[in-house]
Amino acid sequence: MAHVGKRIEKAREGIDRKKLYGIEEAVKMVKARATAKFDESIEVAFNLGVDPRHADQMVRGVVNLPNGTGKTVRVAVFARDAKAEEARKAGAEVVGAEDLVDQIQGGTINFDRVIATPDMMPLVGRLGKILGPRNLMPNPKVGTVTPDVAGAVKAAKGGAVEFRVEKAGILHAGVGKASFSEDALLQNIKAFADAVTKAKPAGAKGTYVKRVAVSSSQGPGVHVEPSSVL
């Protein structure tokens, strides 16, 4: 059995693992237990009643969190000429075309989000095996394949969060920092939950949101009553 440190043991005190807490109380508990020496991320996880192996049960989307994520997002953009200049002016850290393909194929991936203009997708398609597993592949469904590269860059840096359900039906995302106020975290969590609800696939049967939990980067998870979030 893995050893549990004193800090984690102390953080778990007062949390009933079998109880479902209202989202307000859960956020308060998680913030109080985020005692690491850095500003911990606050994360929310959903267990969904879907089987993403079936195309009609895939849950995927993007949401702009009202209070941002608190993270510095590095953006790469595949674009040429005027669109490339627009991306740079909007704050993209990496902009290119064939040269960017070579950089990525060479193993240099120093960014967190990838955006591309539609005409660049045949080029970007060569990188599917590299970007796909890292969930970095541009996709029009989440606004990362668009002629409006400036808007996409600003959205990515301003709090846009992509989400995609994993094989076991788990979906999770960072929704802020421990330094955020409780109200700011609640607004972000409810905005994220609303986006997940709206992304419910046609093939989903039975209970869509089975379980919800909130945690910090190095703190214990708190189980949440789904109805208090949705």
UniProtKB/TrEMBL annotation:
Keyword terms of this UniProt record: Repressor, Ribonucleoprotein, Ribosomal protein, RNA-binding, rRNA-binding, Translation regulation, tRNA-binding
GO terms under cellular component: cytosolic large ribosomal subunit
UniProt xrefs under InterPro entries: Ribosom_uL1_bac-type, Ribosomal_uL1, Ribosomal_uL1-like, Ribosomal_uL1/biogenesis, Ribosomal_uL1_3-a/b-sand, Ribosomal_uL1_CS
Pfam family name, one: Ribosomal_L1
GO MF term list: rRNA binding; structural constituent of ribosome; tRNA binding
PROSITE patterns named in the record: RIBOSOMAL_L1
Gene Ontology BP annotations: regulation of translation; translation
Similarity field: Belongs to the universal ribosomal protein uL1 family.
SUBUNIT field: Part of the 50S ribosomal subunit.
Role description: Protein L1 is also a translational repressor protein, it controls the translation of the L11 operon by binding to its mRNA.
Full protein name: Large ribosomal subunit protein uL1
Naturally occurring in which organism (per UniProt): Paradevosia tibetensis
Organism lineage: Bacteria, Pseudomonadati, Pseudomonadota, Alphaproteobacteria, Hyphomicrobiales
Gene: rplA
